[in-house]
Please model this.
Amino acid sequence: MRYALLADIHGNLEAFEAVLRDIDMSGGVDEMWCLGDIVGYGPDPAACIALLRRHRHLCVAGNHDWGAIGRIDTSDFNADAAAACRWTGRQLSQGDIEYLDGLSTVETRGDFTLVHASPREPLSEYIFAAATAAESFRHFDTRYCLVGHSHVPCLFELAGEECRRLDMPHVVSLGGNRCIINPGSVGQPRDGDPRAGYAICDEDTLSIRHRRVPYDIAATQRRIVECGLPPALAERLGGGR
Ligand code: ZN
Model:
């Protein structure tokens, strides 16, 4: 079985469509695994939900997904994120709201645990540092945990008692140590590479391939401005920050 690992789409339809084309050109997948934050920041939240739902998929809730429907407190969001969150809420149909409301914060499939942020705090904790990752390994039982939230592709590997942070290699070979894997962000990358990020997990070859896909960034930026969303949300896409 092959799975597409998608995180932090954030209402960026141009990026999401480019990723889906790349998945097709790479031989397709059996299922999409979405690590949350389908919406928030970007100009096409409802279209991104609809597009994901047209595919066989598994999805966990992100803080923006539940922020947009008023299910969690967003007082810790910065001003631009909070403004986008309120705007996003107004774009959603009753069906969209029910879909987001019905997502779980944790899903498990075989050797994989899926969460948005971290297995300890699935909606809020950023895993940037090896020390945080080391703690996280105590909070899930499977061999691997897939996370998003930081929008930075990376890999944390537990070797004995030692937890190491690695930049996301092009190909990760599974079957060895326990790992926490972040495939990067489809719709708002923050690692300095503005291309959409995602990964393909292949159970047969026991590998995860990290992919970067160019998309029409200027089109998304125009849409953000047209929709009256904060202009800074358009600007940051250009630098991948
Ligand atoms: Zn996010």
Remarks:
- The chain has eight helices and twelve strands.
- The first strand starts at residue 2 and ends at 6.
- The radius of gyration is 17 Å.
- Helices lie at 13-25, 45-53, 63-68, 79-91, 94-101, 130-136, 217-226, 231-239.
